[in-house]
Amino acid sequence: MIEITASISLNDYEIEEQFTRSPGSGGQKVNKTESAVQLRFYARRSKALSNAIFLRLKALAGRRMTLEGELLITANTYRTQEQNRKDALARLVAIIQEAATPPKYRRPTKPSKNAKAKRVDTKKQRGDVKKGRGRVPRSDD
After folding, report:
1. Which range among 8-17, 25-34, 84-93 shows the weakest confidence by mean pLDDT?
2. How far is it, in rounded angstroms, from Cα 10 to Cα 43?
3. 3-class DSSP state for residue 36?
4. Is the model's pLDDT at 39 over the cut of 80?
5. Which residue has the higher pLDDT, 104 or 25?
6. Distance CA 93, CA 87 (A)
7. Residue 14: which residues within 8 A CB-CB, separation 6 or more?
8. Which among 62, 41, 44, 42 has a CA at the least distance from the CA of 53?
9. 115 vs 79 pLDDT, higher one
10. What CA–CA distance (Å, rounded) separates 86 from 57?
11. Is residue 53 within 8 Å of 100, Cβ to Cβ?
12. Using CB atoms within 10 A of its CB, is residue 139 exposed (0-12), middle (13-18) or buried (19+)?
């Protein structure tokens, strides 16, 4: 069981790991060890996620989510398989936690009468300044 939040925990069978050769640094060893991790999480089939959380997760994941609702996370930053596994799992937990927090409701507001009046006054003052920049009339001396 992987604990995401107090109310969300994932079963181990919902997550699948595949190991591939990492393209990063590592010298000769990188060509023969499979240290990169590709983590698959079946989000659409997960009983732990509600539909609202799944939809927010889908929006957050972007191209990392397939059409079938599988979230793919690839980790190849580190040289060891174990560190890459921890990194991929931490990234999965972080994105699900972010999706689990509902967005704050924005209450629309209007500017006050005083703010509108100040805006109009400022515009009038600015217009007067610009009017004063015109050509000076010639005086007939």
Report:
1. 25-34
2. 10
3. strand
4. yes
5. 104
6. 10
7. 41, 42, 45, 46, 48
8. 44
9. 115
10. 20
11. yes
12. exposed
Tell me which residue of 4, 8, 38, 2 sits closest to 20, measured CA to CA: 38
What is the residue whose two structure tokens read 């793919």?
72
Which pairs with CB-CB distance under 8 Å and at least 24 residues apart come from 61-70?
61/95, 68/44, 69/42, 69/43, 69/44, 69/45, 70/40, 70/41, 70/42, 70/43, 70/44
Helix 51-61 to helix 81-100 angle (10° resolution) is: 120
Q: Look-up: residue for tokens 């079963």?
A: 11
Domains of the chain: 2-100 (3.30.160.20)
CB 9 within 8 A of CB 39: no
- Counted residue by residue, the chain has a size of 141
Amino acid at 110: K
- Using alpha carbons, list the distances in angstroms from residue 56 to 32, 41, 68, 100, 117: 39, 15, 16, 8, 41
